[in-house]
Amino acid sequence: MRNNLKIGVIGTGGVGGYYGSQLQKQGFDVHYLLNSDFEYVKTHGLKVLSPNGDYSFNNVNAYQSVHEMPKCDILILALKTTSNHLLSELLPPALKDDGFVFALQNGIGIEQQIAQIVGPNRVIGGLCFICSIKKGPGVIEHQDYGWMSVGDYRENNYISGLTDRIKMIAEMFDGTGIPIDLMEDLTLARWQKLIFNIPFNGLSVVLGANTKQLTSHPDIRELAWQLMLEVGITAKSSVNRVISEDFMQDILHKTTVMQPFDPSMKQDHDANRPLEIEAIHGQVVRHAKAAGIQVPKIETLYQQLKFINDDS
């Protein structure tokens, strides 16, 4: 399988760079689309710092344009959703006719948007629980965790079951040490990821705090819990998915014990980049309104984030 597949990475940041490099380390033919650090990576290669062991590649298949990339069997999409207006330009030129997109993006409605471009049978989704950042040109710093939940996309929130494509993804990452949870229900997995993203991405920006600071303050920890509960209520009312309180408690515990970390939205805010508000908080607010339920804490957080984003 390693000799036959071409893997493309669209968005070589902390997430795309880490998972793509892990596949390259396993012997896969990986091709990276880069932006600001293209020249550096083309000349000096890619380095990954990790508590599991540092590694680097001197020779990297680096590109500045998708039109220069070979047609790929799998495109790992790890761009910020704030760039998704570019997908119709980025995906078709780099994807084989029988290839598929592996979307590693935050939020709701991701696969639906991609399916409108490449077709509904050519998309799978992955939800990453990882602390990883681009530390500098050509340098990825993996700080903690790394597991993925992977599911196949079906229209209208239908359950796909465990398909051959997602089993293939698990096989590809076998040997990396990255735990892969195969999900029969991608819709459920996406809403479960919001249990972390809604409270901790949002509050980290509004309060200017990392995960350790947020979980260590009793009032903010309780606020995070209430935000989680509102996500659960919305999932049940809008897409008929149940997220147990045990799952929420597990996410809260994992966030409490992880290394102090600035969630991706805070990293974007600190770097004066646009925030992924609409794909995460905005989508939940819109789902809640469509279902006729109230999520006052999420809506307040959404309004605060929009003010911060518009003001920056």
From TrEMBL:
Belongs to the ketopantoate reductase family. Its EC number is 1.1.1.169. Catalyzes the NADPH-dependent reduction of ketopantoate into pantoic acid. The lineage of its organism: Bacteria, Pseudomonadati, Planctomycetota, Phycisphaerae, Phycisphaerales. It is an enzyme of class 1 (oxidoreductase). The keyword NADP applies. SUPFAM superfamilies: 6-phosphogluconate dehydrogenase C-terminal domain-like, NAD(P)-binding Rossmann-fold domains. Residues 185-308 form the Ketopantoate reductase C-terminal domain. The keyword NADP applies. This is 2-dehydropantoate 2-reductase. Pathway: Cofactor biosynthesis; (R)-pantothenate biosynthesis; (R)-pantoate from 3-methyl-2-oxobutanoate: step 2/2. Residues 7-154 form the Ketopantoate reductase N-terminal domain. It catalyses: (R)-pantoate + NADP(+) = 2-dehydropantoate + NADPH + H(+). One of its GO terms (biological process) is pantothenate biosynthetic process. GO terms for cellular component: cytoplasm. InterPro entries: 6-PGluconate_DH-like_C_sf, 6PGD_dom2, ApbA, KPA_reductase, KPR-Related, KPR_N, NAD(P)-bd_dom_sf. GO terms for molecular function: 2-dehydropantoate 2-reductase activity. Keywords: NADP, Oxidoreductase, Pantothenate biosynthesis.
